[in-house]
Design a protein that fits this description.
three-stranded parallel sheet, binds succinic acid, alpha/beta, 2 domains
Length: about 375
């Protein structure tokens, strides 16, 4: 009988039916009871652990997803208003699930640092000017070519077409997704002396965004370009460390550049346009239904921001004129042709990097 019992228990143990860790069931009845007690204890512990994890899942599910949106401009600009609109829409539709925190005026990051911060997960949305992506793609250099787009309508037309749309994905390999283009407006040249013809810019120092195309544009004028963050421009102008800068009516007005620049030449020679972007990791990490709602809110906010940009180009120009703090110079056709003649050869220099077909497609949208 005892022999039979041993044989059976060996067979069960081999098949892991009896857990060896709790000793042999042939040792004694007491050991068997101890094993059962231990099993009960473990069962209890595993229930407690399961309850603990379930509770923590509930707590973390209750925590909203935080979207930090960092930008460098004032709140009364197309980008500033777009960001605030996005926050308002998300607050209204995804309360308790998603929380948008907007940081304007370079409070959190300057444009030169924000993309690195995004890849590290310290910020989740930004809309840097297209001139600030050179480290990540050469494709967006297109938008800095002088006199490429005659109007913001042409920019919009190009971006909505297949060539423009494909640019949204130009940094996917680097971990960044372009969600939407956003407009600010056409650029003007401001300076501490009148700039009527290209020769007037000779030897003068101009602040530019971090763009080799913009550097080449000012070299073509025989001027000295300096790549500086947006947050430093006012002080550089005020202290006369630089002579001038290029920007939109909205940025010149909202950052008060017109108060420290006695001349603005209405050149419309380029654009300030943005790419609202995020990191692939953050974006794809959001639950699909939430992501769809966030994207919907973002699209509505960008449409709203583009409407603001069109109005601001007119309104902020008028406010600058009315202030009488600066003189606005409008160019004759002949003067304008001189600027085009000097600056346009920059296209050829960057043709290989940008792609001739892209330049042609963009020009064709005029
Ligand atoms: C911006 O509009 O975001 C900044 C443009 C600039 O750096 O000049």
């Amino acid at each position: 009988m005892k022999k039979e019992y041993i044989r059976k228990s060996m067979w069960l143990r081999k098949r892991n039916i009896i857990d060896c860790r709790y000793g042999s069931d042939i040792d004694s009845k007491r050991n068997l009871k101890g094993g059962i007690k231990m099993k009960n204890k473990l069962f209890l512990i595993s229930i407690l652990v399961a309850v603990f994890f379930a509770a923590s899942v509930v707590v973390s599910a209750a925590k909203p997803i935080v979207i930090k949106f960092s930008h460098v401009v004032a709140e009364n600009t197309p980008k500033g208003q777009m960001a605030n609109k996005f926050k308002a829409l998300v607050d209204e539709r995804l309360a308790g699930k998603v929380e948008v925190q907007v940081f304007p005026n370079s409070q959190l990051f300057g444009d030169n640092k924000v993309l690195e911060a995004m890849l590290l997960g310290d910020v989740h949305l930004a809309a840097p000017a297209l001139s600030k992506f050179e480290k990540y793609t050469t494709k967006l250099m297109l938008f800095d070519l002088p006199f490429l787009f005659a109007s913001m309508d042409a920019v919009e037309k190009y971006q909505k077409g297949p060539a423009g749309k494909s640019l949204l994905d130009s940094m996917k390999k680097k971990g960044l997704i372009g969600l939407r283009f956003l407009h600010n407006g056409l650029k003007q040249l401001s300076a501490n002396s009148p700039l009527r013809v290209p020769a007037d810019a000779d030897g003068k120092k101009f602040r530019i965004m971090t763009s080799d195309v913009l550097a080449a544009q000012f070299h073509a004028l025989n001027a000295i370009p300096l790549k500086k963050p947006f947050s430093e421009v006012f002080t550089l102008l005020q202290t006369k460390a630089i002579d001038g800068q290029e920007n939109t009516w909205s940025n010149i007005y909202s950052k008060k550049f017109f108060e420290v620049q006695p001349y603005i030449t209405e050149t419309d020679h380029g654009i300030v346009d943005y790419l609202v972007c995020t990191s692939t990791e953050f974006w794809m990490g959001m639950p699909a239904d939430i992501r769809a709602e966030v994207e919907k809110a973002l699209n509505e906010a960008v449409d709203f921001g583009n409407g603001v940009s069109a109005k601001k180009a007119v309104e902020d120009r008028k406010k600058i004129v009315d202030s009488k703090r600066t003189k606005i110079l409008t160019l004759t056709d002949a003067e304008r042709q001189q600027w085009i003649k000097v600056m346009k050869p920059v296209w050829k220099k960057f043709e290989k990097k940008i792609g001739k077909e892209n330049i042609d497609a963009a020009f064709a949208s005029n």
